[in-house]
Amino acid sequence: NVDQSPIGRTPRSNPATYTGLLTPIRELFAGVPQARERGYGPGRFSFNVKGGRCEACQGDGMIKVEMHFLPDIYVPCDVCHGKRYNRETLEVRYKGKTIYEILQMTVEQAREFFDPVPVVARKLQTLMDVGLSYITLGQSATTLSGGEAQRVKLALELSKRDTGRTLYILDEPTTGLHFQDIEMLLTVLHRLRDHGNTVVVIEHNLDVIKTADWIVDLGPEGGDGGGRILATGSPEEVAACEASHTGRYLAKMLAPKAAVAKAAAPKAAPKAKAASAKRKG
User: Which terminal residue of the chain, N or C, has fewer Cβ atoms less than 10 Å from its own Cβ?
Assistant: First the structure.
């Protein structure tokens, strides 16, 4: 179930750790000559264990300040200034970038930077495919919206080996999305379907509903006024159901498409009329 619950509840969690991106990136840093000379392994570039992290904040980059009568707040660490790592770790660079600078990149920037590294580029591309090109790799999970968290989870699923036998359930995945991002998301969902998977989407957005293979319309109203199955079938079949509010609005969206299809249909050739003539005698 790809829901909108957070991918983590502390600043330590981020898209790079959740999707597994940080693991191959740490291995790349451990492979540079400077890291090998110092004996740094991949663990050195993790902010979750001792060694390379800043011990003042234990790799959080933030310090929690307890407010007795108000919610706790987080402020940048005075030692690492929010960079999570100690000075020695930040001296190691991969293609001129520190591990902190990598985590500050947006998904789009990182996709270009790691293009020659397929194992990293592939995971970044899945984040791009679900419309998350703008978030940073190290962005705190607590700052992601429910819709963004849901799409990070979807990206993780997309990065796994496709069996063609997976059931995906998404609850309103288009919440807060621009139309262009919705189109990108639909492309991903259709790709999952085309590979043999089943995708169930709970949605109110007609741009999504009209592309479904099969619709189950519940209503007629929301909450206590609903709960009954009003119509099932293809978008065209649901649009023909007069009892369905969704159907009525869907019919308006499908009407231009139907008109274009009708106009594009080849017209039958007119039947030839038999000519008759009378001979005057």
Answer: C
